[in-house]
Write a structure and sequence with these properties.
The chain is an all-alpha fold. It has helices spanning about 1-30, 40-45, 50, 55-110, 115-135, 145-165. It has two domains: about 25-75, no CATH class; about 75-165.
Length: about 170
Amino acid sequence: MQTLTMLFFLTLAMLPGLIASTSSVINTTCSKIPDMSYHYCVGVLSAEPTGASAIDTRGLAVATANLTVHNVTSTLHMMGDLVLELNACIGYYKYMVDLIVAAVDDLNKGRDAELIYEKLYKASYTPLDCDIALFEGAEKNPMQEENSENQALARIASGIAFLMWHGRS
């Protein structure tokens, strides 16, 4: 038991020296990088195992270059997913336009309000399909504001058609 306790205290006594030598390389390097937040730099390098264990600036450069490759690759993957999902959204919006144009045509020709309502109502939910695609394929939805606005406008149109259908106009 005494040996274990002694080993524990010995390790504790050596730890500041180990941390100081690693962190001094990080601290010194981060303090010299122009146009970079010192705290951000220290945080990134300290959190990265290969950065935290680096003994010189070359080791830090390798660690951050590898971290950058990992992050860029992840971003490229996310962008690829986003392109796929945006293409799906283009299809949804083309369908939405077709429904609305058909409803306008039906309105101009005096057709049954129930059919008009059904088209406009279906169109009002199409932006949600885009939202779902983007939420599943991307971490950020760049179309959220537009989808919400388009959905609201289509719901107004379908609501008016609903009133027409039920003779409340």
